């Protein structure tokens, strides 16, 4: 009887330790909430069938995923485009490496007050109306370029413009700089906002309701990033193959109907 109890305890202990071991082997992938998290759930499902475990870590901030990756709290992150990563590496000294492309999500111009783009130049917009734009350097410049392409402002030539580079503002818009995750929330308080697709989806808005969208250049493809040196790990190579599969591409196409696009 004691022998059977011993066996049961031994088996239970083995299961517990085995579970811990499996959890330790799981790849920790950091993503922002919204499309990236939705895609990662599908990748996680597919990876299980390949014997690869994934632990998804969600963030509601653009700065924390790189800090966590640099500190070794993540194995991979997927949420940012190359210019944003390069700015963080330059200013924060991170030793991070791009291993592949993920998706591209165009910025859009949104409003709760206007039904269509033509309304911007009508009597529905008064002088000195407010436009909210992201406050991080790379996405702020990207938002201003979108507004220029919509013929709402004119900018001095600059690779990464700021509001100080506006040389023509015919409707006298006032620019309000807001943290990217908060842009959808301030729509009630402004006439227009330039918002990243991931925060649009997360807020419950439909990205197809954008009044105007950028023709997103290739430099703004979101990338898959690891700590430098980890790119040779076999499990990361397996992860990349699953992520950049036709199955995941089809999932993205069907789930987001073109508002988020596979970029590999």
TrEMBL record:
A lipid is attached at residue 20 (S-diacylglycerol cysteine). Pfam families: Lipoprotein_9. CDD domains: PBP2_lipoprotein_IlpA_like. It is a lipid-anchor. GO terms for cellular component: membrane. Transmembrane segments: none annotated. This is Lipoprotein. Belongs to the NlpA lipoprotein family. PROSITE patterns: PROKAR_LIPOPROTEIN. Keywords: Lipoprotein, Membrane, Palmitate, Signal. It comes from Candidatus Nucleicultrix amoebiphila FS5. It is found in: Membrane. The keyword Membrane applies.
């Amino acid at each position: 009887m004691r022998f059977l109890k011993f066996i049961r305890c031994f088996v239970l202990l083995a299961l517990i330790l085995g579970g811990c071991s499996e959890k330790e082997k799981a790849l920790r992938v950091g993503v922002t909430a919204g499309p990236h998290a939705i895609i990662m759930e599908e990748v996680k499902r597919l990876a299980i069938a390949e014997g690869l475990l994934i632990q998804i870590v969600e963030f509601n901030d653009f700065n924390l995923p790189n800090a966590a990756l640099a500190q070794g709290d993540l194995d991979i992150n997927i949420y940012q485009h190359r210019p944003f990563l390069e700015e963080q590496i330059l200013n924060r000294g991170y030793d991070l490496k791009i291993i592949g492309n993920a998706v591209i999500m165009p910025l859009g111009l949104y409003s709760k007050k206007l039904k269509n783009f033509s309304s911007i130049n009508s009597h529905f917009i008064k002088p000195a109306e407010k436009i909210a734009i992201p406050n991080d350097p790379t996405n702020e410049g990207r938002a201003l370029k979108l507004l220029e392409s919509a013929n709402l402002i004119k900018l001095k030539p600059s690779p990464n413009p700021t509001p100080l580079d506006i040389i023509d503002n015919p409707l006298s818009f006032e620019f309000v700089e807001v943290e990217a995750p908060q842009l959808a929330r301030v729509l009630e308080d402004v006439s227009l906002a330039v918002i990243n697709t991931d925060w649009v989806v997360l807020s419950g808005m439909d990205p197809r309701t954008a009044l105007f969208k950028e023709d997103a250049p290739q430099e703004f493809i979101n990338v898959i990033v690891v700590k430098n040196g980890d790119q040779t790990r076999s499990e990361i190579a397996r992860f990349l193959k699953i992520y950049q599969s036709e199955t995941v591409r089809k999932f993205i196409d069907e789930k987001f109907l073109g508002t988020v696009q596979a970029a590999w």
